[in-house]
Amino acid sequence: MRDSWLVCAAGARPERTVYRITEAGREEMTDWVRELIAAPERERPKFKAGLSLLAVLPPAEAIALLCERIARLESQIAADEQEQAAYSATLPEIFLIEGDYDLAVRKAELSWTKKLLRRLSDGSFPDLARWQLFHETGQLPPELEE
Predict the structure, then answer these.
(1) Mind giving me the DSSP string for 34-54?
(2) How far apart are CA 116 and CA 136, in angstroms?
(3) Pair 140, 134: CB distance under 8 Å
(4) Mean of pLDDT over the chain
(5) In this prediction, what percent of the chain has a pLDDT beyond 90?
(6) Do 84 and 96 contact (CB within 8 A), yes or no?
(7) What one-character DSSP code corresponds to residue 134?
(8) 26-54, pLDDT tens digit by residue?
(9) Quick check: is 39 in a domain?
(10) How confident is the model at residue 9 (pLDDT cuts 50, 70, 90)?
(11) pLDDT tens for residues 89-131?
(12) Distance of alpha carbon 115 from its chain centroid, rounded?
């Protein structure tokens, strides 16, 4: 009995629905793409949020975490470059530009993060000693206590 129900249910499918874009839809999409391309908007990456709170970590831990981030970024960039190269052999560049943009952004982040790491590691980051002292003693500098 159950098998016959399955046969009936399998044969009772609705007609296939075919959608087409309307002229109004095409115009809306074109306007939307124009806005996306022309109007820069501040995006809120999680890394930026983490940087705004970096002082809650001791400098040594911040340095270790930045090293970890750098290693991960380098690995991701290498993988993305290989993927882009593979796709570029078969696809026109216009279909790869968002991946190219993503690579450029990641490379800029990598460069900036390496610079921050260098400044923290060599002691040239301003107020590094006070940051470290806060984590050793728990005391805020007098000008920040209020």
Answers:
(1) HHHHHS------HHHHHHHTG
(2) 22
(3) yes
(4) 90
(5) 79
(6) yes
(7) H
(8) 999 999 999 999 999 998 899 999 999 99
(9) no
(10) low
(11) 999 999 999 999 999 999 999 999 999 999 999 999 999 999 9
(12) 19
Residue with tokens 């790491």: 117
Two tokens, residue 123 = 């002691």
Stated pTM of the model? 0.80
For residue 64, CA distances in Å to 14, 51, 68 come to 58, 14, 6
Residues 121, 122, 123, 128: what is their CA dihedral angle, to the nearest 10 degrees?
A: -20
Residue type at position 60:
A
Helices (H), the chain: 2-11, 23-38, 46-52, 59-88, 97-122, 128-137
> Residue 8 domain-assigned?
no
How many folded domains does the chain comprise?
1
The CA-atom distances, in angstroms, between 32 and each of 15, 26, 36, 77 are 32, 10, 6, 30
Q: Return the DSSP state at 56.
A: G
Residue with tokens 């470290």: 132
Residues in contact with 139: Cβ distance below 8 Å, sequence separation at least 6, in sequence order:
133
pLDDT score, position 143: 78
Does 63 reside within a domain? yes
Query: Is 125 contained in some domain?
Result: yes
- For 105, the domain range is 44-144
